[in-house]
Inverse folding.
């Protein structure tokens, strides 16, 4: 799985860090650091973290096994079907 966080969109709410602390962490009060290559065993926590981002800044490639999954669109296919 590959993660991308839009750091321009991220507001530092840290919901992802609470839900997947092995992948996301806050550096200081506002700077998010993360591991862009998440392990398979992190899948469930990552799905929760992606869904919990209040500004939908996290994209997880391959999270649901079908490709890109932008925050807030879990379960939707990328072709609109």
């Amino acid at each position: 799985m590959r993660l991308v966080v839009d750091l321009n969109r991220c507001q530092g709410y840290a919901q992802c860090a609470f839900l997947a602390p092995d992948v996301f962490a806050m550096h200081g009060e506002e700077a998010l650091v993360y591991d862009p290559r998440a392990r398979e065993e992190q899948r469930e926590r990552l799905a929760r973290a992606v869904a919990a981002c209040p500004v939908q800044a996290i994209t997880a490639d391959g999270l649901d096994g079908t490709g890109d999954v932008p925050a807030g669109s879990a379960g939707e296919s990328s072709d609109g079907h």
Observations:
- The helical segments are 15-19, 43-52.
